[in-house]
Amino acid sequence: MSVFRASPPYHHGTPAKTGVLLVNLGTPEAPTAEAVKPYLREFLSDPAVVELPRVIWQPLLHLFVLTTRPRRTAEKYAEIWMADGSPLKVHTERQTKLLRGYLGERIKTPLAVEYAMRYGMPAIGEKFDALIAHGCDRILIVPLYPQYAASTVGSTCTAVFRHAAALRRMPALRTVTHFHDHPGYIAALAQSVREHWSRNGRPDLLLMSFHGVPRYTLTKGDPYHCECQKTARLLARELNLAENAYRVCFQSRFGRTEWLKPYTSATLVQLGREQTGRVDVICPGFVSDCLETLEEIAITNKAAFLNAGGGEFHFIPCLNQRDDWMRALSDIVFDNLLGWPAGTPDATAAEAARRRALEMGAKD
To answer: Is 339 helix (H, G, I), strand (E, B) or coil?
Structure first.
């Protein structure tokens, strides 16, 4: 029995084709406990997400976490579910369609752009195979996380490489590991803040909330914390903010392990107790609005701030389908495709190559 999966038949002289695979975190298919449970099982079973020995973690996951958390999480999803589905999936789908158009203006070689989810559907393997079936022999993987973390970008790349390794004919692969300091990404963030302030006035404090990770990842060499801090510094500089005009904090803590601090929830409660007049929150670690921004920040943490005595709370939406962000994403992809053919395929040369191969005994 072969260790490889079959690849599409090889034809001599076939023009090279490039594929781009955007990958986001994932989402359940519906805001119900029945749909959330398998999604959470897959997500929390990833050893890159929960770095505990499986013999310890799996019983806890199945006996405790998966018996209570799906219902509570489903209720949260129900609060932010869109007419077209989960916000994360809707925004990622729209970004993919727009990126096809933006790249089509710049690259004339055959190009295919798809998206997948690290957990849930559409699965990485499904969309990777779709690009292969489409004739792609070069694929650029673009995890949609601005800052690198082993639990996000690292896990995504591992899943891609594991799937690709089983192909009989593996394509050339490249990965975008981060874009936390990309000028276009920073400029789009800054412009989104300026536009919000032009409509609503300025706050007493801008809170930059990033997704959290366990603190031990920092001491083990994960660059995530440093890249979050750099994003914050660059955004503050772009907005000409004084050091006391913004703060960096971390959200979405899970479990009892210490995570990166300060925690967003605790920070907002403290700001509320100090009777801060107005706080604006932006989440620069997310390029699409999702459960962590729309429910955790814009609903739960807003209520915590107001209930603690805060005056006014504004959530600044993620970049989603902003034109400046889509152009920045196009730049990121384009820069990482450099060196791969980007001109119009020469049909005559391709046919000549095919004929030479046939003359040397190759099968068509």
So the answer is: coil
CA–CA separation, 223 and 226 (whole Å): 5
Q: What are phi and psi of 107, to 5 degrees?
A: -125, 125
Instruction: Say what percent of the chain tops pLDDT 90.
Output: 85
Determine how β-strand 18-27 pairs with β-strand 111-120: parallel
Distant-in-sequence, close-in-space partners of 241: CB < 8 Å, separation ≥ 6: 206
Q: Which helix (H) or strand (E) holds 138?
A: strand 138-143
Residue found by looking up tokens 């695979």 in the block:
21
- Grouping H, G, I as helix, E, B as strand and the rest as coil, residue 178 is coil
208 three-state secondary structure: strand
Half-sphere CA count of 279, side-chain side, radius 13 A? 34
Nearest to 187 by CA among 331, 27, 60: 331
pLDDT value of position 357: 47
Alpha-carbon distances, residue 39 vs 29, 33, 86, 91, 192 (angstroms): 9, 10, 13, 19, 32
Q: Using an 8 Å Cβ cutoff, are 39 and 27 in contact?
A: yes
Please check the confidence at residue 147 and state whether its pLDDT lies above 80.
yes
The whole-angstrom separation of Cα 227 and Cα 237 is 15
Contact call for residues 233 and 317 (beta carbons, < 8 A): no
| Mean of per-residue pLDDT scores for the chain | 93
CB atoms within 10 A of CB 138: 19
